[in-house]
Write a structure and sequence with these properties.
Strand content of chain B: 15-25%
Number of strands of chain A: 6
Shape of chain B: globular
Structural class of chain A: alpha/beta
Largest sheet of chain B: 6 strands, antiparallel
Helix content of chain A: 40-55%
CATH topology of the domain at 77-171 and 181-191 in chain A: Dna Topoisomerase Vi A Subunit, Chain: A, domain 2
Order of helices and strands of chain A: HHHEEHEHEHEHEH
Strand order of the largest sheet of chain A: 4-3-5-6
Distance between the termini of chain A: 64 Å
CATH architecture of the largest domain in chain B: 3-Layer(aba) Sandwich
Oligomer: heterodimer
Number of strands of chain B: 15
Chain lengths: ~200, ~350
Amino acid sequence: MTPAFEALQKELKRLPGVGFRSAERMAIHLLLEKPEAAKRLSDAILSASERVRSCSTCGNVCEEERCSICEDVRREESGSLCVVEHVSDLMAIEKSGAYRGRYHVLHGKLSPINGVGPESLNLAGLAGRVKAESVTEVILALPNDVEGEATCHYLTELVESDSVEVSRIGFGLPSGASVLYADSGTLKSALDARQRY
Amino acid sequence: MRFKTVAVSNYRNIKFARLDVDADRVFFLGRNGQGKTNLLEATGYVTSLRAFRARENETLLGPESPQAEILFEMEHEEYDEVEARVRIKKKGKEVYLDREPVRRASDFVGRFPAVMLSSEDLSIVRGSPGGRRRFIDTFLCGIDRDYYVALQRYQKCIQERNALLKKGAAANLMKPFEVQMVQPCLEVIRKREKVIGELGGMASRFYEMLSGSAEEIGMSYKPNASPEDEDAYWALLERNRRRDEIMHSTSKGPHRDDFELSLNGRPAADFASDGQQRSIALSLAFATIAYWRERFGVCPVLLIDDVLGELDPMRRQRFWNALDGGIQLIATGTELPDAASGKEWRVYEVEKGEFKPSAP
């Protein structure tokens, strides 16, 4: 391969979820098969990286100071604030339409082994937000692995008060799934989180 | 259970081999370094998804091969005819059971028990505490999924806590991990204590059969700390906090546990002869087999790497006498196997990673 080709492939491989083969395929696609796409893609990247930023309030993607969710006053009515690890988690919840409150994106979870402490997370404004926006419930929508649990614990200490309740999303069977095919860990949390019917 | 077919590709020095092992006694015969143990190791992989001689996946991959694959066709008391396939990559592995992907290792580990006997067994008596912990953890993880989950959680939390101790982090950063250590810690200690007692009792049954002498062997849990409840665990953490901060690691807890094997009440590592230690290690292996049989109605497969040849004729005879009749046995060696086993051996000759059925 040529040096320029390899340089591109190397950069593509750095992207999350992209391995050596995918990077190679993308590079061939962009350089040989669809050269017109290369210009479009690089323009899109440049223009997006100039305009898109992180919402100063919640950490979501936006092009202004604040994202459309934070600007939406109706979102404040519910009094709830949903804490997620990544913007993609926020997007997934939004798409479901099941939640109409505000969000706070941490951009990670506590993991000392990987050098991630509270200072590396988007935590600076959180406690202030909970007060200023008169939040009554903080919903933790974080994964239930060791780091997720630790982050939940840390956040609870940080925001819980007489006027603020902290809750955690449930873990259990996916909708429409049968008990038969669930793995044992999922079944255990589903049973632990059972509700009166 | 019983292996019917074992097939491997690009596993260490074996490019490809597919062996019909549907027999009570199977033997891989060959000179040293030909790949006998490699296939035996691959066969044992099905039990805990770990190779008994390797820590890193990479060492298992054949030269210039990005992945190794092992296929097992088995007959199992509970699952009947079943096929498992493991694909080992540099980082991570994929497991399929009857062609369905297995998403969590904890759903697979321990379903297909095989017990390995090798020259490293003696280290259970005189090796490091780490080796003994590995033995008891491997066994417990195989028979108890909750233990597996608890142990993983505990170990992860210890790593995270130690990382914080190294940085000199404040207590409020450690608490979120400490909170998660309490229950797993108590569970690990409770279950280790119970199973060590049970295995010890079973092992002494076999010791007499295997050694021909009526000495008493014992197995006793030596917990590094034994908090009885949550409060006691928190007190333990607090008592050692200052020390942990200075040492940059968590000093007390089941990650430092040990157990001791004794002969007539004295530590076997110091007082037992070489032969006695060997018999103790064998008894322990027989005890794990008996445990599976009696508690779960599943008979493990016995994998024997080269050690039959090391037993003197007397001990070997006792070995065959003590062995459970229905068990499948797969062994390796440089010389033809023992005729005293009472059953016909199916022999494969091994050379440079290739396996050929031996003409009878």
